[in-house]
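worker-3 :: picked Mitogen-activated protein kinase-binding protein 1-like
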Amino acid sequence: MAVDLTSETVVTVGQDKKIKTFDVATRRLIRSYNHDKVFGEPIKVIMDPSCTYVVCSFSNKSIYIYDFMTGEMVAKATGHAEIVTGVIFLPDCKHIVS
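worker-3 :: tokens ->
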């Protein structure tokens, strides 16, 4: 689970294997992000500080980057030796460490 810097939006992954964004004040679903079943199960989700991107690691040892507003997958990173359980954005919001 990740909360934006203003505490207005939360992004979650759960047992339903979906990435979802909620409005904190109203507790309503804003959007659900579509992902291919071959990605496996979502493990960890974060937002960048500017709330432009959502990054999610999956059980297929990869991470996928989504546009926060549209939910469209914009990039992926593969080749990890193990499942990625930690992901962070560097302060410049241009680099990810996993």
